[in-house]
Design brief:
With 282 residues, this protein is mostly helical. 66% of the residues lie in helices and 3% in strands. The strands form two sheets. A two-stranded antiparallel sheet has the order 1-2. The chain has a two-stranded antiparallel sheet with strand order 3-4. Helix 1 runs antiparallel to helix 9 and helix 3 packs antiparallel against helix 9. The longest helix is centred in the last third of the chain and has 48 residues.
């Protein structure tokens, strides 16, 4: 059974090492793009790509060549990643628990109010610099063009996405008849101009936050699966680390044997090539 954990860790990290290359490439491509929507993703993608690259490289070298130091670094970083992901999951559930839409009488869609969401999210979206970038994304998506040709009957019977409900129309409670008293602030921010609409309304921010809330819940499920997979890989890595320690502690008992059941081990060619190269150089 000796070396099975090293082989598994080697193959797993080779796969993740190769998968980090398109992630980094995508982040670099987004960096060259001028789209405001893509700018939100480029930094996390680059950080994730380089993190996967470093972890996979350390794990691959440590497992293939039984280098205990590289495996120790690999296990420490993996533990930090697992703890960070678990903290991210808990944090995501805490800040996205509040929220949800309010049913509108006689309508199929819901409306969303900014005060119903967590204070942390509200502060992030209330920052003018952040909201300008988000608003540009919403406008460039042309999501409001989908309901421009709706009839009054469509508004009564058809559903809307949270962003459409908050950004593409005034709140249902608004009354623009002459002589009407005070109304919601969003009623005064609404404008029929295509580039204005209700993009500056709190209801628009609430609609975007509802999308964030729903996406974060989906991401949390994915993160839970990733954490479970990482825990399994971390356990196998611990076995590989113990194997590497035994190799250095008891070299005679765990000496390198290039033959196993009359067939060369999978890493024998790598070791022979490195030995030949070292002799040729020195």
């Amino acid at each position: 059974m000796y070396g099975i954990s090293n082989t598994l860790i080697g193959f797993l990290n080779l796969f993740t090492l190769l998968s980090s290359i398109p992630i980094i490439g995508t982040g670099l491509w987004m960096m060259r793009s001028n789209g405001s929507c893509q700018s939100f993703l480029q930094t996390p993608l680059l950080v994730l790509g380089f993190l996967i690259l470093i972890i996979s490289l350390a794990g691959f070298i440590g497992a293939c060549f039984h280098i205990a130091c590289a495996l120790w670094i690999y296990l420490v970083i993996m533990l930090l990643v697992i703890v960070s992901l678990m903290g991210f999951i808990v944090f995501g559930f805490v800040i996205t628990s509040p929220g949800g839409g309010v049913d509108v009488q006689g309508r199929a869609y819901k409306e969303y109010h900014l005060e119903e969401y967590s204070l942390w999210l509200r502060r992030r979206f209330s920052d003018p610099r952040n909201w300008v970038a988000v608003k540009t994304c919403v406008q460039s998506s042309k999501i409001c063009d989908q309901i421009v040709k709706w009839t009054p009957y469509d508004y009564l019977t058809r559903n809307m996405s949270p962003v459409q409900s908050g950004c593409c129309k005034p709140p249902t409670s608004c009354n623009y008849a002459v002589g009407v008293g005070a109304q919601e602030p969003d009623c005064y921010l609404w404008n029929n101009v295509e580039t204005v609409l209700c993009y500056n309304c709190d209801s628009c921010k609430a609609g975007v936050l509802e999308n964030v809330r729903r996406d974060w819940h989906k991401l949390a499920v994915l993160n839970i699966v990733v954490v479970l997979i990482l825990i399994v890989i971390y356990t196998i890595g611990c076995c590989a680390f113990k194997n590497a320690q035994r190799t250095h502690t008891h070299p005679a008992a765990y000496a390198f044997n290039p033959m196993s059941k009359m067939h060369p081990r999978w890493d024998f060619q790598w070791r022979r090539w490195l030995d030949d190269t070292r002799r040729w150089l020195y």
